[in-house]
Amino acid sequence: MDFDEKRLNLAKRLKDELNLSEKVYNAIKKVPRHLFVPERYRAEAYVDTPLPIGYGQTISAPHMVAIMCELLDLKEGEKVLEIGTGCGYHAAVTAEIVGKSGMVVSIERIPELAEMARKNLSSLGYDNVIVVVGDGSLGYAELAPYDKIYVTASAPDIPQPLIEQLKRGGRIVIPIGDTYQVLYVVEKNEEIRKWSWGAVRFVLLYGKYGFRDLEK
């Protein structure tokens, strides 16, 4: 199976449909999504759809990864916090955009997925990604502040720790809602400003500021 050709075709289609910037297009074109999904789903790796990765979680559809990267307006050299590592694919795309001078810190609540992501990222040379096991709704204060933050699970509201750990002038992209979810872009300046992008569908965020406290 020619995964390279399938990946290129997917990237070209997303670029045309979503008017992708060159940096996001190049990242989608480069990151081998088939190496992040379980082997039984590799034939579907370049279909623009979520796929199961185990433990009740999914790898996001490529178009959603691309849209979130565009909404964040990622730049080379930025430090980015990801909430919800999954298999590591989205972190790899982000790492491509921020480059070797940048950093991605990713929080995953499921240890087995965190280990899977570490192996996937390490095998492909992404040494600018740090994967931490923990409650993503608390962020990761140890390496704060962050230029950008994105959340790959839907929250009841914007977790306060994420706002506190975001640099002034930074952005958060986060889905909010339970049955009905909306993707929001949040900007932190003198005031917090947010606007909606549109309806989406994500797994739910668990944790202290999620739909269920992990400690209960």
Reading the helices and strands in chain order gives: HHEEHEHEHEEHEEE
Total count of helical runs of at least 4 residues: 6
Q: In CATH terms, what is the architecture of the domain at 62-200?
A: 3-Layer(aba) Sandwich
**Sheet having the most strands:** 7 strands, mixed
Whole-angstrom Rg: 16 Å
Q: CATH superfamily membership of the domain at 62-200, which one? A: Vaccinia Virus protein VP39
Beta content: 25-35%
Number of strands: 9
Strand order of the largest sheet: 5-4-3-6-7-8-9
In percent, how helical is the residue content?
25-40%
- Uncertain residue ranges: none
Categorize the overall geometry: globular
Distance between the termini: 46 Å
Mean pLDDT, to the nearest integer, reads: 96
